[in-house]
Design brief:
- The structure holds two protein chains of two kinds.
- Chain A has a two-stranded antiparallel sheet.
- Chain A is 74% helix and 1% strand.
- Chain A has 15 helices and two strands.
- Chain B is an all-alpha fold.
- Classes of the chains: A mainly alpha, B mainly alpha.
- Chains A and B meet through helix 7, helix 11 and helix 14 of A and helix 1, helix 5, helix 10 and helix 12 of B.
């Protein structure tokens, strides 16, 4: 009988403690405690590593809005990381260190580019969409390479980190918590957004766009809004990236970065809120592990530490072929199955 | 990860620019120079066609996006260079190794990875083949080292041909000839043979072809291996004029994707015209756009904008094509 299930749609289910929620809470709390851990272990390097993880997590969460909830496979989101980074770098080069000005410029440019690019790429779908987003990202990559005044190919060191007044970003821990706070804020906002009408329409387009259009929704407008929004999250991540490394380079928008963002999203769990965070953490930690692996066999260690990218490549193939739902996605699906089974059992008892 | 990968990309982008040979900023534009650049563009175009035809067939029939196609090109170039050096500079040995090697590699990759992805969505295919790219890039670095590998054109093609007073390398003419011959050959195979008929049928309705008793699995493998061999052939032909190194496949892959999207996904005809258009626009744009801009703009501005605009030209072209015809210039006609 479907009645109990139908009721649970109408009345919001009480927040129960389930494995996915425990996992999400542990992950986020764990990430919040990293600076403390680094301080106690006296390994300041950890803060830098995990700031990188948070920044990529933020970008992947942004990408997930179009990739996971809208089924738009954008292979060019690194472009927006680049826009954020270059906004900070170029303004800083001209002596503008004010973070708010940099933020405004980055968001404005990012929104304009995303609107224009989105309007073109959304005319296509499927395979063509993948390739065109990739091509646009390459276009911007080569534009950045040709900006000789701003370092061209070699990149440009920054004069200093952004000055937001009040927070001193030159303190690595402050930068870490800024990234952490932004990640949490975006997670909360997206969590509400995907359950709101906007998110419902977007998810509807994912499962059947023609039906949504027939129902009278201007699907293109919704998809374009989602595309721009997800781009802006990546722009902010790019700003943080430039601040972390105090350096900008075209390599931030290399197409491999777009690929990595997709890998993180899929590895964590496509179309789940926390998935991209888990995926970014997992992928970057695996990379770190492979590149500094010590098995005690010198010649083997040498090969692995030098050619760890090959292992990452195989790891990605493995994830796609075997771990289809991703780390966090697997927990979610398992929980959904368990709930469905429980509902069925309950229905059986009622009968 | 980004730093290592981008190093490759930069190096190969530089190599690619060098591939377009000849003077960077000519003082005066002569007929011979224009002709030279047109030929360079044609040569890049036919190389792109060798790659695009295989990729577009694989997509048309199996509906698979194979990003590792650029890696097959790279492997072809490495196989060629390795055989060239092992057999005392024999170009024939290089050809056999490149085409045969990538054919076999294509078979293995198709059976082990791609065939499990046919029924999955494009995202999974993109990811798995992205993983393969990272893998192959490191494998060649492991086997042949990080430095680029040397190979040369066959002895009898090392000279130049006189072209209105400008010497033009005869090897580049050979590339154009090979590309056009492959194009003609593909046309005959696809339109005049039984295998070609099955390929066309498979592209428009694989289920029906399979229901009629055709071994669609075998057909898929054949097409994929054929595409891989063409990529290997492109790698062989490019070997003497680009630097053979890890990551050389990616810039070419991206150009190939631009070709396919511009021409119309799944269409060989589109791949052919798209490749020529992209090859010529890219080469001629890089050669003459900076000079041309100097006529209209201030020198300093032109110098800054010219190269940037030139490198973005094909992407702008693609965007324009898509804005007007989302299906590409030569979409596949079904039915």
């Amino acid at each position: 009988m479907a009645e109990p299930a139908a009721v649970s749609v109408l009345v919001p289910a009480p927040r129960r403690i389930t494995p996915p929620r425990v996992f999400a809470a542990l992950l986020l709390i764990g990430l919040g405690l990293v600076p403390l851990w680094a301080h106690l272990a006296d390994e300041p390097f950890l803060v830098t590593l995990f700031t990188r993880i948070l920044i990529f997590a933020l970008a992947a969460v942004g990408l997930n809005l179009v990739l996971g909830f809208g089924a738009m496979v954008s292979f060019g989101h690194a472009m927006y990381l680049g826009i954020g980074a270059y906004a900070v770098g170029i303004l800083s080069f001209h002596g503008v260190d004010n973070g708010w000005l940099q933020l405004a410029a980055a968001l404005a440019v990012g929104a304009l580019v995303a609107l224009a690019v989105g309007a073109i790429v959304l005319r296509t779908s499927g395979m063509a969409f993948i390739m065109i987003t990739l091509a646009f990202a390459q276009m911007l990559y080569f534009l950045a390479v040709s900006l000789r005044d701003y370092g061209g190919d070699d990149g440009l060191p920054l004069n200093g980190r952004s000055d937001f007044g009040g927070i001193d970003l030159n303190d690595n821990t402050a930068l870490y918590y800024l990234a952490y706070a932004l990640l949490l804020a975006v997670l909360v906002a997206f969590g509400r957004l995907i359950d709101a009408r906007f998110g419902m329409v977007l998810r509807g387009c994912k499962s059947n766009e023609r039906r949504m259009a027939t129902l009278g929704f201007p699907t293109l407008r919704y998809k374009l809004s989602a595309y721009v929004l997800s781009a802006l999250v990546c722009v902010v991540a790019g700003m943080l990236m430039a601040n972390l490394t105090r350096f900008i380079a075209p390599s931030y928008m290399a197409w491999t970065v777009s690929g990595e963002l997709i890998v993180m999203t899929v590895l964590g769990g496509l179309g789940t809120l926390i998935g991209p965070v888990a995926g970014a953490t997992a992928l970057l930690l695996v990379e770190e592990a492979f590149s500094s692996l010590k098995l005690g066999v010198p010649w083997l260690d040498d090969i692995i530490n030098q050619h760890w990218l090959a292992l990452i490549g195989l790891f990605i193939v493995f994830v796609v072929l075997v771990l289809k739902q991703g780390v966090y996605g697997w927990l979610v699906v398992r929980e959904q199955r368990r709930e469905a089974a429980a509902a069925q059992a309950a229905a059986g008892e009622v009968r | 990860l980004p730093s290592a990968a981008s190093r490759d990309q930069r190096a190969t982008a530089a190599a690619n620019a060098a591939n377009a040979a000849t003077p960077a900023t000519p003082a005066t534009v002569t007929t011979g120079l224009v002709l030279t650049q047109l030929l360079n563009g044609l040569q890049l175009g036919v190389l792109l066609f060798l790659l695009a035809s295989g990729l577009t067939l694989v997509f048309g029939i199996m509906s698979v996006v194979n990003l590792a196609h650029g890696s097959l090109y790279m492997m072809g170039a490495y196989f060629a260079a390795a055989a060239f050096n092992a057999f005392g500079g024999s170009f024939l040995a290089a050809a056999v190794a490149a085409v045969g090697g990538t054919l076999l590699l294509g078979l293995v990759v198709e059976r082990l990875v791609l065939s499990t992805l046919y029924r999955r969505d494009h995202l999974d295919q993109v990811l798995a083949t992205f993983g393969l790219i990272l893998f192959f890039n490191e494998v060649v670095r492991f086997i042949w080292g990080p430095a680029s590998v040397y190979m040369n054109a066959p002895e009898w093609l090392r000279g130049t041909v006189d072209l209105f007073g400008l010497p033009y390398p005869s090897y580049r003419f050979a590339i154009i000839a090979v590309g056009l011959a492959v194009g003609a050959g593909l046309y005959v195979v696809i339109h005049r043979t039984r295998v070609g008929m099955l390929i066309r049928a498979g592209a428009s309705n694989p289920e029906m072809v399979s229901a009629l008793g055709v071994n669609i699995r075998g057909l898929n493998t054949t097409v994929f291996a054929l595409g891989a061999a063409l990529a290997g052939l492109a790698g062989l032909m490019a070997g003497p004029i680009v630097s053979v190194q890890s990551g050389m496949g990616e810039p070419v892959l991206i150009l190939t994707l631009v070709v396919i999207v511009t021409g119309g996904i799944g269409s060989i005809r589109g791949a052919f015209y798209g490749a020529l258009i992209v090859g010529i626009v890219d080469t001629v744009g890089r050669a003459f756009l900076p000079t041309l801009l100097r006529e209209f703009l201030e020198r300093s501005v032109a110098q800054a904008v010219g190269p940037a605009l030139a490198s973005m030209l094909i992407y702008l072209l693609m965007a324009a094509v898509l804005a007007l015809k989302p299906q590409g210039l030569f979409p596949v006609r079904h039915g």
